[in-house]
Design a protein that fits this description.
Blueprint: E1 4-9, H1 16-19, E2 29-32, E3 37-42, E4 45-51, H2 57-67, E5 71-75, H3 87-107, E6 112-116, H4 123-136, E7 141-145, E8 147-148, E9 151-152, H5 159-168, E10 171-175, H6 190-209, H7 212-215, E11 221-223, H8 230-243, H9 245-248, E12 264-266, H10 272-282, E13 287-288, H11 304-308, H12 313-328
Parallel strand pairs: 1-5, 5-6, 6-7, 7-10, 10-11, 11-12, 12-13
Antiparallel strand pairs: 2-3, 3-4, 8-9
Helix pairs in contact: 3-4, 4-5
Amino acid sequence: MFKIDIHTHILPENLNELTNTFSDPRFLRMDALDEKTAMLRKDDKAFRQVDCNCWSHHARTNDCKETSVDVQVLSTIPVLFSYWAKDDECLKLSQFLNDHIAEIYRTESTKFIGLGTIPMQNADLAIAEMDRCVNQLNLPGIELGSNINGLNLSEAEFHPIFEHAEKIGCSLFIHPWEMMGQGDMQKYWLPWLVGMPAETSRAICSLIFGGVLEKYPNLKIAFAHGGGAFPFTAGRVDHGFNVRPDLCAVDNSALPSSYMKNFYVDSLVHDENAMNFLIQTMGAERIAMGSDYPFPLGEHHPGKLIESMELSDTTKQRLLSGTALEWLGLHESEFPG
């Protein structure tokens, strides 16, 4: 079956050429350890060790062959969003990252698709770079963080960005980052195990309660990690909406769960029971295969959970590529590889 992985991350091997021109130590640097591994550094400290498949599209092409993934959707590593940076420096970094992804897409258009990144802290610059990504670089969408310097995505200053994305048909992929409370739970990898699902639910609830999905119903928006905690706590969210409308129904009048038909999620839930629940709750037409390649917390054989389940071939094909194609506004015939 045709397989599209909507959730994969990549960074440029020459990242330091740009970030070394910035004085702020929070910008990511990459120090080679050998030909196949590197250490990412932030704030002059080790942040994460990565293998060459994190920067080499040739290495990931080999991995795709081994796991029968036909197309990867490339997006930057969330730590590179850098929304905290000066506007002009964040724009330069965004352009650098977007040009890198676009070049891979240009040279290997049957194997890769790209999502850009934009300086969300400045709506005018964000919209301009979104336009460049879609209209000049031919990228079908943008990856966004789940919050912008602690601000929820529902804040009015971000509405023009969502309005423009809807206007030009730009697909959006929301990924958790800078998880709320992560400073209080560093032990046991809890920011990634507990914080990320909560952070994704925060983003979904913010867009619902803030009226963004009601105001821009044609947004093509997808959330990472199976929608985080939201699908599994939707009953609680609906109940809160009903019993405390004075707090929850201030900027949106519709039941929160009714918006599940207005957004997509990836399939990264790691558990058959969870996947069955997600399919029953949202429908296969709302779920697209995503692995979080090439990181340890991802699905190491993309799509293996879906392929192993007792589902019809029609449902499996929808999960493995059909939903992704719909979300991105593409057709399988565009990838004749």
